[in-house]
């Protein structure tokens, strides 16, 4: 039995804008409105507007909310200040990554966990199960929020026209309650594009009004609506991992080169958290005999590498592509790949990607491919 895809509060608006829609994690989402390249370049140079209402919001409240989160997640959530956010992960007992998350601290005992659309139910189930024995409540708030992002160098100027919140004082990875275009919103300085920008959590019934107000405020500086397709090339250039590609249950955070998110020095719950023992072993392995490392690859030719293609050197398979696309900013195809340590150093040549039987030449580079000028 196939279920109809879920629609965001902005569905009718996307269709009126002529968006090409696609099924993404059970949601009908805009893939692009016009040219993917134009949308990508708008975010890099001006601003882009995204509907991210497919993301999964889970609220955790109660006297032991932070103890629960410290136990359930690998990060040290007790050190997150009020109004701040943290990038973290939730792992299985064996250390495998269930999802990467952003946790926002909304109040003294209130937190919002934002999960990827494809994993929202898995994360909700895991948090609910891990809440046993804690004086805390886990609430599915996926239907309570629409999420709109405005990203790019012009985004602070655009948003300032619609809010009296102190955007200049709002640091990266912080969120504050305010009003946008006259309606309440949580304004977070977060994003997945490698640019400055904001993510606005608001009630679904307010989404259309806020989208239209942002469109109007941004029109003079070149803001355009953007779909999931350019969001993928933007995050790839910025070296940001995508669940199901760079992150999976078969990998620990250490395998993914993101061991820094695992905090063994937590003091809550006597330092206990789900996956701790497995992750301690993974940390040791990563130091002594690292498995494959995540690197960037830049093509010398024009053929685009895709996830699952083999990376080769001297006739041997030495890795696998996790994400690949043409890079509008670099003007050539790029990819992220897990490769053997022997070929992981930036500048390594003689590396190829097996594109349908032909070994296309690539150069290994350090991630990210693109870093904005601050």
Automatic annotation (TrEMBL):
<dbReference type="InterPro" id="IPR013977">
    <property type="entry name" value="GcvT_C"/>
</dbReference>
<feature type="domain" description="GCVT N-terminal">
    <location>
        <begin position="12"/>
        <end position="266"/>
    </location>
</feature>
<comment type="similarity">
    <text>Belongs to the GcvT family.</text>
</comment>
<dbReference type="InterPro" id="IPR006222">
    <property type="entry name" value="GCVT_N"/>
</dbReference>
<keyword id="KW-0808">Transferase</keyword>
<protein>
    <recommendedName>
        <fullName>Aminomethyltransferase</fullName>
        <ecNumber>2.1.2.10</ecNumber>
    </recommendedName>
</protein>
<dbReference type="InterPro" id="IPR029043">
    <property type="entry name" value="GcvT/YgfZ_C"/>
</dbReference>
<comment type="subunit">
    <text>The glycine cleavage system is composed of four proteins: P, T, L and H.</text>
</comment>
<feature type="domain" description="Aminomethyltransferase C-terminal">
    <location>
        <begin position="292"/>
        <end position="371"/>
    </location>
</feature>
<dbReference type="InterPro" id="IPR028896">
    <property type="entry name" value="GcvT/YgfZ/DmdA"/>
</dbReference>
<dbReference type="InterPro" id="IPR027266">
    <property type="entry name" value="TrmE/GcvT-like"/>
</dbReference>
<comment type="function">
    <text>The glycine cleavage system catalyzes the degradation of glycine.</text>
</comment>
<dbReference type="Pfam" id="PF01571">
    <property type="entry name" value="GCV_T"/>
</dbReference>
<dbReference type="InterPro" id="IPR022903">
    <property type="entry name" value="GcvT_bac"/>
</dbReference>
<dbReference type="GO" id="GO:0004047">
    <property type="term" value="F:aminomethyltransferase activity"/>
</dbReference>
<dbReference type="InterPro" id="IPR006223">
    <property type="entry name" value="GcvT"/>
</dbReference>
<keyword id="KW-0032">Aminotransferase</keyword>
<dbReference type="Pfam" id="PF08669">
    <property type="entry name" value="GCV_T_C"/>
</dbReference>
């Amino acid at each position: 039995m196939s279920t109809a895809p879920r629609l965001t509060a902005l569905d009718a608006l996307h269709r009126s804008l002529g968006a090409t829609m696609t099924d993404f994690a059970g949601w009908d989402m805009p893939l692009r409105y016009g040219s993917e390249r134009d949308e990508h370049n708008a975010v890099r140079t001006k601003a882009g507007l995204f509907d991210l209402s497919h993301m999964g919001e889970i609220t955790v409240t109660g006297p032991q909310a932070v103890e629960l989160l410290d136990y359930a997640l690998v990060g040290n959530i007790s050190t997150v200040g009020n109004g701040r956010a943290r990038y973290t992960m939730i792992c299985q007992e064996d250390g495998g990554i269930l999802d990467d998350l952003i946790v926002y601290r909304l109040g003294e005992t209130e937190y919002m966990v934002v999960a990827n659309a494809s994993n929202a139910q898995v994360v909700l189930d895991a948090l609910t199960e891990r809440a046993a024995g804690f004086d805390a409540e886990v609430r599915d708030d996926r239907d309570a929020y629409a999420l709109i992002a405005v990203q790019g160098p012009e985004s602070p100027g655009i948003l300032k026209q619609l809010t009296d919140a102190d955007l200049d004082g709002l640091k990266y990875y912080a969120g504050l309650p305010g009003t946008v275009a006259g309606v309440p919103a949580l304004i977070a300085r977060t994003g997945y594009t490698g640019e400055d920008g904001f993510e606005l959590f608001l009630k679904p019934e307010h989404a259309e009004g806020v989208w239209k107000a942002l469109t109007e405020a941004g029109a003079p500086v070149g803001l355009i609506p953007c779909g999931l397709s350019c969001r993928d090339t933007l995050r790839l250039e910025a070296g940001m991992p995508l669940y199901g590609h760079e992150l999976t249950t078969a990998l620990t955070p250490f395998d993914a080169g993101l061991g820094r998110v695992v905090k063994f020095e937590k003091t809550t719950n006597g330092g206990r958290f789900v996956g701790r023992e497995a992750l301690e072993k993974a940390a040791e392995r990563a130091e002594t005999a690292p498995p494959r490392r995540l690197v960037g690859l830049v093509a010398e030719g024009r053929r685009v590498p895709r996830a699952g293609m083999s990376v080769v050197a001297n006739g041997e398979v030495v890795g696998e592509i996790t994400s690949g696309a043409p890079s509008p900013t670099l003007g050539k195809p790029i990819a992220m790949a897990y490769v053997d340590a022997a070929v992981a150093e930036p500048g390594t040549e003689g590396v190829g990607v097996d594109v349908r039987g032909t070994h296309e030449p690539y150069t290994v580079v350090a991630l990210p491919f693109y870093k904005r000028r601050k």
